[in-house]
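REQUEST
  id: r-88c1
  op: predict_structure
  target: FtsX-like permease family protein
  payload:
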Amino acid sequence: MKPFSALYYIKNNFKRSIVISIMMSFVMVCFMGGMYLDNISESFFIRYDKPAEYAWVYVNTSNNGGDEETGKFRNKIDSYLTKNVKEYMEVGYLNCQYMSIMGFNNNSESFIFYSVEDFEKYKKYTTDYPDDVKLSDGEILMSELLANNIGLRDGDIVHYDKDAGKCQRVGSHKVNSSFVRLYNRDLKVKIVNMKGIWVAAIDSTYNNSDNLLFLGGTGKGVADDLNKIADSINSEFKNVRASTNEIFMKDLDRDIGFMYSVLGLIIGVVSVVLAVTINATVAATYEKRKFEFSIYKALGYNKKSIFKKVCSETLIMNAAGVILGCVFCAIVFAVLNENMYEQGFHFYFISANGIKAAIICDICVLIPVIFFNYRRTNKYDVTVY
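RESPONSE
  id: r-88c1
  status: 200
  body:
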């Protein structure tokens, strides 16, 4: 190993280099920030981040003109059908509340099917539920994550009580709860091992028909037609609205967009703090190395060679820091997932926004560290010392 090489210095100053690497590992705080922010919408991404498989039409009859528009829409439902979308189905609306890791109260929207046949038909045209998932009349299906979040057990009988709170157990299998609005009857909980927040119910006594699904199956042509149907309905009516996966995701991006300005603030604060702290630490180190760099110059090493050495040392320590940060994050998220899953909290994926945030923060730290280090070396001269 050559004395001028970056590894030679790191090897002979291992403890000091480790301290700097640990400091640089804190750029991964931005990754963790991205993970937490993405968690707000992660359950929605798992469900809706795919081409449209149905168009959901819902009606607000409480607004002026709602009933009149509903009648006009129902008189021309068949006119919206296309070559790829030939089916539609009446469904009820099911709204379920749950809590995210950050303490946000989220809503998951799904459907009440009028019969087992309707649920099977929905499964035929979509990929939401596995083929082996079965649901009976009077049952409410929930993913394990959602059931844990709310505090329900398989076989619980859910009774709607607006004053009960999320889950109030009043018997071995009886639950008074306001987490989901049930209109007609008690429903038996059926927990299914599915990723994300999923809920659906079958209630043959349900008599509200303000919701409808256009069904076409999968494929680009189907998705295009479903989106065209939704756009056509939305442009024609004010109280009759239609949504697809693509429309829902656009709305979601708009609604939570402000949260990513928070991530930008986190990046800025962490970058400034780390850049100042690491520069101060490295400055003290380089002050002790002024004779070393003065001798390099006396031996004929040019500015380019010294710049490469400064870059190499910094980048190697930075790489070690990033690896340490990644290992720490992996351990933290593994522990959190393992211990919080029973409470219905879970990290599903590696956040792309978290990775971008960490990279941006890392660059904002590296550039001033390398620049000021190189600037210091230019001041060192053997004739002075």
